[in-house]
Each structure stands twice: as C-alpha cells, then as structure tokens.
Amino acid sequence: MKQGDHLFLVDGSGYIFRAYHALPPLTRKSDGLPVGAAAGFCNMLWKLMQDARNTDVGDAPTHFAVIFDYSSKTFRNELYPEYKANRSAPPEDLIPQFGLIRHATRAFDLPCVEMEGFEADDLIATYARLASEAGAETTIISSDKDLMQLVTPQVSLYDPMKDKEIKVPEVIEKWGVPPEKMIDLQALMGDSVDNIPGVPGIGQKTAAQLLAEYGDLDTLLSRAHEIKQNKRRESLIEHREKALMSRELVRLKQDVPITEGLETFTLQPPNGPKLISFLKAMEFTTLTRRVAEITDCDASAIEAAHVPVQWGKEARGPDLDPGTASATSTPVAADASSHNGVTHYTPAALASARASAAAGAPFDTSAYVVIHDLATLNAWIGEAREAGVIAFNTKSNSADPMQAELAGFAIATRPGRAAYVPLGHKSGDTDMFGGGLRDGQIPARDALAALKPLLEDSSVLKISQNLKHDFVVMNRHVIDIRAFDDTQLLSYVLDAGTHSHSFEALAERWLGHQVIAAKDIYGSGKSSRSFDMVEIAQAAAYAAEDADVTLRLWRVLRPRLVEDGLVNVYERLERPLVPALAQMEQRGISIDRQILSRISGELAQGAAALEEEIQVLAGEKFNVGSPKQLGEILFGKLNLPGGSKTKTGQWATSAQILEDLAAEGHELPRKIVDWRQLTKLKSTYTDALPGFINPETGRVHTSYALAATTTGRLSSSDPNLQNIPVRTAEGRRIRAAFIPEPGNVLISADYSQIELRVLAHVAEIPQLRQAFSDGVDIHAMTASEMFGVPVEGMPGEVRRRAKAINFGIIYGISAFGLANQLSIPREEASAYIRKYFERFPGIKDYMESTKAFAREHGYVETIFGRRAHYPEIRASNPSIRAFNERAAINAPIQGSAADIIRRAMVRMEEALAKAGLDQTRMLLQVHDELIFEAPESEAEAAIPIIRSVMEGAAMPAVAMKVPLHVDARAARNWDEAH
C-alpha cells in the first residue's frame, strides 16, 4: 500500500445488527431459513460499494475489507471477567445468519477478516495504523464511538445510515474532546453497555471538563486531591484503579499479530457470476437483478451456489462463542435440530421455544430503575443502540394524545431490564395550578433532546403496545419515531377474532403474568387522578413493567409471523398505516358550530313533535326514553306481536324488534324508531361535537383503532365520525357542518360498490365481472337477470329490490331479513334469494366453499392474506354456528375492501408529495371513503392523483379481475363533496 491509496474498513459485526433491526424479518421461501439480516447486509454492502466506486477519484477506495468479531471472548475478559457480561444473547433467528454473512462477504470478493482473542475494533485499529504509516487514507464504515479514538487527519469514520462523515471536528463537537483524548474520556465515563465501570458520578460533560483542565487521565488522577467538589474528588481517589483498568478496556490494540496484510485488500472489479450465484442461493431476487444489470451478466444462465447453513464454529458473532451449546437457555422444540451443540430453529420451533420460555420467566418490579439524571439516561440510550431494540412507551396526563402532557416515558432493553424516566410529575399541594414538579426529574426538554436521535434512528427497532398513541405524543414534541413494531398489531394480525389484544389480556395469555392494575395507579371514581399526580416510585413500577412486558410480548409474537406466513400482512397492511393514521389524527378537521347549533335546535323540535304523537298513539303519557315503560306500552298494553322478555324480566325493545314491528305496519314502533334516531343524532353529534374541538388547534381530532374489528375495518372514536348516517336528510345536514379552512376545499373520494366488486372478483361471477368492466348499472343488471325486465325504463322499485338483494347477499341476509327490508312476504323473499343463486351460481359456490374452509381451518382469508378467525363456527348451538358462518362468508369480502383502502392510505402521502401537492392533506377515513383538505388551487390536480392511488391500490399484490372505481369531487363541505 502506498501514498494516495484509500482503505475502506467495514465494521462487519455492526453492519449485521443494523441490517437485522432495520429491516423486517425475511425467510427463504424454499425452506423457511431466516435470511433477513443477510439480505440487509448484502443490500447495504452493495450500495456502499457502488457509491464508493462512483465517487470522486480521490475518495474512491483502492483497498477494501470487512472485519468481524470472532466471538465475545477476548483478551479483555482475562483483564476483567465482567467485561460485556451484561450483553444479551443474539436473537435465535440471527444465529444461523452469522455464517451466511461471512459467505456473502466472500461472494462479494472481499476479504473477510477476524481473529480469535481480538475484537473487530482491534483489527480495524491495527489496519488503520498500518495504512497511515504507508501514507494512505482510511475510512472506517461505522458510527461506533469506540472507534472515534482512531480518528486523525488520515483516518475518518463514515456512518452510511445517516450519510455522515466523522472527522476530528465532529468528534470534538459531539464529545467535547479531540480523538486522542477519547480513551481517557471513556475511561472516566465508563460504559454500561460493555460493563466498563469507569468512575461513578462522572458523566460525559464532567469528564470533558476535567480533561480540558488537567490534560490527561494520569495527571487528573495524580492531582485528584486538588479538586474542590467533595463528591467528585472522593470518587476519583476511591475509584482510581477502576479508571485505569477502564482505560485498558477501551484502548484499542493497534498491534494485533495479523496474518493478512494490506496488500490482500486490493479492491477488485465486481465478480458478477460469483455474487449472483450466492444471491440466487439465498433467493434475493431483486438484488440479483440489480447485480446482473450492473455487471452485464445473464442471471438465468448462472446456477445457484451451494451455501451450507453452518453451525458450531461458523455460527460466530457477538455474544455467541464457537462450539457453545446455545445462545440461550430456550428449550429445543420438536422441529428444531442441533448440530455441534448449537440449536437450529425452524420458524415454528423458534415461535414455540420463545412462547415456552416467556411463559415461565419471572418478573421483578423491584429491579426496575428510575432514571433521575441525563448521564444515566444517555447510558441507557447507548445500551439500546448496542442492543438494536428497545421497548418504549409514554405516560401522560390524558388519554387524548393531542392534549396529553408528558409525565414521563419508560424503556426496556432486554427482558427484566427496564427503567422509567419521570419528567412532569407534580406534587399536587404547592400551588393553585396543581402543584409544582417533584424533585429528581430531568427537564423534559433535555430528556427529549437526548431521546430524539434514538427514536429517529432507523437502525434501532422501537417496540410499543398501541404505538399510534406514543407516535402522536412524540410527534407533538417534534420527534418522528422510525423503525417500529406494535405488539397490539402483531397480535391482531395473528389472532384476529380469537381473543382480546389488550395489553392486560396479552400479558396474561402469553406470559402468564398479571400486570399492575390501572385502577391501583389511577384510582377510580371521585378519587381518580391523572398519571402526572402519581408518586414517582409507584409510577415507575407501573410504567417500567409496561415496557418490560411489551418487549417480552414482542419476542413471543414476532416469530409467529414467519411461522404463520403473515409477514406481508403485517408489513404491508398494518405497520405502515400507523404513521399515516397518526398524521390524520393530528390534522383533524374543522366544524361549523353555528350549523350544528341550528341543527340541534331543529332536531329537538322534531323529537318533541314525535314525542307528542307517540303519547297520543299510546293513549297515555310515558317516558319514551325508558325501555321498561316502552315495553309495557307495546307488549303489555297494546299486545303487539313478537314480545319477549330479557333475563331481568323486562320486555325487549331493541332497534331490531322495533324495526320488525314497523315493517309489519305498526305505526307506534315506527315513530319510536324515528324518535330514537333524532335524539341520538342530537346527543351524539350536534350537541357533542363542539365539545371535541381542540382548544389549541380549533379542530376535531378523532382517534382510529386498527385492531378493533375482526375483518380489518378501522373504527373511530372520541368522536366517532363513521356512524353519521349518509342516507337521511338529518345525517347529511350534520356532514354539511364539516368544513375546510378558508381558501381550501374538502375532497371526498369514495369507492363505488367496492364490496360487490370484490365479490365478483373472488366468486368467479361472469355477469358481474362483465357488468363492472362495461360500467353498467350493477343493480339494474341484477334486476334484469333475475326478473327479466329490460334495463331501459326499469321501474325504480324493481331496481331497489335487486339492490337490497345484492348487498344483502354479502352479509348473509336471510329470507326473514329481506322480507322485512322490502316489506314483502317471507315466501316471496325466499323465492328472490333462491332465484338469485340460480342466476349467479358462483356466489352459492363461494359461500359453501368459504364455510367449508372456515370449518376446517377456523379462519378465512382476504385476497391479501389477512386472517379473520371464527373458532365457534363448529359450535353445537345452531344459532351461534349460523352467526359465525354468515360472518365467515362476509369477512373475505369486507376485509378485502378494508385492505384495499388501507393500501391506498399507506401510499397516498408519498403520491401527493411526488406530484408536488404537499398542501393536500388526508384527514378522515370513513369506511370506503377518504376525505382530504386541499387549497382551492390544488384540488383540480389532486383529484386524479387520489383517484389513481385508490383505484390501483390492490396492485401489484393482487390483479383485480374487475376494475375499481372511485367517485371524487371537491366542495365547500363534506356533504356537498360526497
């Protein structure tokens, strides 16, 4: 090597963990082998090499090598046995990938360097020294602070995740000392991640100040008696030997007895066939195609290499020693295998082993930590970075994330290791504003500034239960959480319809653990309190347990995605929707108070008039809102048919009972139904909506639940904006109160008959497919097919009946239900349904095959693979069984429609931004409809983009056999736009 050359040294072990945590799990399709980290490693290395080769001549590498840790045992463990003793074992599905990644490095035609007894950092330090002595430059591909001691004018670090170069000025800016003092700085600070003791009570800022004053560690320790601060002086004197030992632990060896010289690192042109052969063996099709294009190779002519899955000594990596039994004490499952003492888990075995281990693991809330100072928080943040994963949750004074003030947050870095960071707990008895802050809390601004880089780091996975709440809370503090998993959504994807996905239920089900009850923390009734008024020690146990349980749940649930083949459902339909919904909730929508007030008054008058008519028909005055009194009038006094009593002995007066009576021509029940509708609209919307206006934004912010329905439909609450009736005049008038800001319009984009289109797709109905393809009125076509009536000049009543049947069939409507809906005899309704199945036999086939599939598997699937479970479909009770059969028939249709709009929502922001329509914002989702707010100047351009995204949302996962159609228009309020 000579002057002018440029050496690239890749911290291979760091790359492995970044690749593992930054990307979703991936398995090789042919055998289920975990390959996600290997895929990420290959993609990152390929990009790095391409970028490096295409850079300026002076910066392009002439020499290139990837350096790995041989194992976790090095000469440092002989010096200090506790060195890195608190490191957790690597994830089970990562273990077989250590060997694969070494094979990958060689397939790239790059040196793959490691040495027993030394860390990768020591090898990097040695090679960097040799390169500098030869007059060459060195770029170390890593952001590890331990390597910053190597930075010189000839040696720099490069963090590819942040695209940031770290030279001498950057080290000084971050740590307050130049690179040559980093060893002494780390010796004073210590490192909780690597279990380096340092000097207790000395954090980064203090260490930098001391070194600036005394020059170096030896001088500082020799003059420690001069320090005026008692605690600091005593700590330095007492822990002198710890500081000296810590210096030896952090000092990188620059004289490793290497066996491979720099001359072997000369960068060669890419060997296309060799790399493609490996990539094909791994089944990395996208990267295979890219490599083939760049290297001008015919990938189809290259055979896949034989790449053995190696164990024993080849299963090397951080915290995993060659030849040891297993990285964890997890029992070997039935479908796991063992080779050279190392367990090889299939996806099913890993999931089973994790669940077994989690169920028996103890909890110790007394071991949880309360973090009172910034230095300790930064140490935990460093620990999270090393682990590559952290459970996180916020605690605040309100369940509404748009108005919540942070009381603190909790974190967990491994099972059993969790902490709480109090920020805003109040004493409650010192002033008229609810009390001053309790002692021992980090200023919120400082804590969040320290936390922000971690939460925004895509290489560290953040885990939460119901992440969307935390997402909104953090976003209001200008923190954008990146790279995350949500245990609630994992459970939902895996088990929708089988059990609750609440935090408490999941802890009990999977961990056998009863979490601290919320009522024990918040109280109840008049004695209830917000979280910021809870005493810190009590709050810490509750919050830290939350983080600990969440991390353990993630370890149990995540492997099941691979086992059950549901990775794509989670990655494409659930996880990416979290930030999209969080943005929508934060944006909210404006409402016109005056319109609502006017409608409220008119609804009150209408309800009063109906109440008078009801009293007249009943022949006496009674409380119309009392089910008990109403039942006595209808079935006790008037002896109307169909009366039945509840378990309490009262007459049942449900909406369905009243609707049935009204359909039979009874006037009083009809009036009651109308009265209930008016009073519900008044209480739920016209009276309540103004109370939901956020005082800061002046807008209404609904909250969406992703895991609320079995089929995948979203639900809305506080306020619920999905149940405003669209077919009644009153409901449309309420929608007219939803308005844009001045200078803007609302855009409503609504899928037309999407569930019928999905039915035509899945049930192989030629007539329906043709009608949708031709743009024919589907209800008129159905009427024509069934009743032999020409489409031209068709009576409205005939079309209405066909429409009722079309939609009723989707929901498994019975002859009794159709008869009530159309006000016809049950025999006639039964004949309609029978004839419908005769004309469209594919629908009957679909229904029967769906029921059979559900009975066999216990679930049904949407066209995108989402599962809805119906465990009671084999129930002995006929009514329960029939209900589950109807639900199972409907779920693939309704669920597929829900999945399509989810896919559209995930893609929408990027599509609008790409078109330069940054001011057009998605605000609401109401079943098959999306509502946007856009400047008047953008609306015309936005509508085609919105329509295109929605109509193409199923692609490329599913090629719909019928076209999707979206009606979209802009207007001055929601009703006019609909």
Describe the structure.
By secondary structure, the chain is of the alpha/beta class. Among the domains are: 225 residues, Rossmann fold; 35 residues, no CATH class; 195 residues, Nucleotidyltransferase, domain 5 (2-Layer Sandwich); 60 residues, no CATH class. Helix content is 48%, strand content 11%. The chain contains 38 helices and 24 strands. The strands form seven sheets. A six-stranded mixed β-sheet has the order 3-2-1-4-5-6. Helix 7 crosses helix 11 and helix 34 packs across helix 35. The longest helix is centred in the last third of the chain and has 37 residues. The radius of gyration is 33 Å and the shape is globular. The N and C termini lie far apart (71 Å). It comes from Aquamicrobium zhengzhouense. It is an enzyme of class 2 (transferase).
Brief summary:
By secondary structure, the chain is of the alpha/beta class.
Topology:
Layout: E1 6-11, H1 12-22, H2 36-53, E2 63-67, H3 75-79, H4 95-107, E3 112-113, H5 120-133, E4 137-141, E5 155-159, E6 164-166, H6 168-175, H7 182-189, H8 204-214, H9 217-222, H10 230-238, H11 240-250, H12 272-282, H13 285-295, E7 337-339, E8 342-344, H14 347-360, E9 369-370, H15 374-387, E10 389-396, E11 406-414, E12 417-422, H16 444-455, E13 461-464, H17 467-475, E14 484-486, H18 487-495, H19 503-511, H20 518-522, H21 536-564, H22 567-574, H23 577-587, E15 590-591, H24 593-618, H25 627-637, H26 655-663, H27 667-686, E16 703-705, E17 715-717, H28 729-735, E18 738-739, E19 744-751, H29 754-762, H30 766-774, H31 778-787, H32 796-810, H33 815-822, H34 826-839, H35 841-857, E20 859-861, E21 867-869, H36 878-914, E22 921-926, E23 929-935, H37 936-951, E24 966-971, H38 974-977
Parallel strand pairs: 1-2, 1-4, 2-3, 4-5, 9-12, 10-13, 13-14
Antiparallel strand pairs: 5-6, 7-8, 10-11, 11-12, 15-18, 16-17, 19-23, 19-24, 20-21, 22-23
